[in-house]
Amino acid sequence: MHFDIVTCLPKLIESPFSDSILKRAQKKGLVTVNIIDLRAYSTDKHKSIDDYAFGGGAGMVMMIEPIDRCLADLKSKRKYDDIIYMSPDGQRLTQSLANELSLKKNLVLLCGHYKGVDERVRQHLITREISIGDYVLSGGELAAAVLADAVIRLVPGVLSDETSALSDSFQDNLIAPPVYTRPASYKGWEVPPVLISGHQAKIDEWRHEQSVERTQKRRPDLLSNV
Length: 226
Ligand code: ADE
What we know:
There is one protein chain. This protein is an alpha/beta fold. The strands form three sheets. The chain has a five-stranded parallel sheet. The protein has a two-stranded antiparallel ribbon with strand order 3-4. Adenine binds next to strand 5. The site of adenine has 11 residues, from strand 5.
């Protein structure tokens, strides 16, 4: 799987890909992530990528020209499944959308900044818009990192134990069950005995019950989606 992340602030998005699971996924050759500095596609000597909004008002707008040049360059090298603009008014990112995206081969994530991109970019140059939640970030970079993380960990082979992605919260509209590790007793706080019983069928049953109970308590809305 390949991601091209287009941004005017590349530093803002480099670090999540240089550590832990996302780094390992790239080292194993399962995923490639290319961060592209939009300023490289600017046409003037000041490397501008934004300008004042027509009609006035506070905030700068990202210009269509550098974005078009950048996307045309990318498209000349690869065929993309989707060109995604990260935006608070896009389709909400959910586990099921992450699952869907994890089956794609090549994705572009375009990060907006300032007041966002010229509307013509949204009308003509991208294929979909995704939001990570109903709040406004100062740019699309952190949202792109969230999306890429949620998707990359689902790519087969990225997690060492493949079943662990499947047992995540939300994967089956249930919240994950509680987990414990050593010591079995700490300050008189005990681990549920079934987990140290060695009886796998009972453990599986207990975990499922806990998931259902937690979901009923914390996120009953998920159960109505089943
Ligand atoms: N850019 C700014 N806010 C955002 C959000 N909530 N989701 C995706 N992109 C964004």
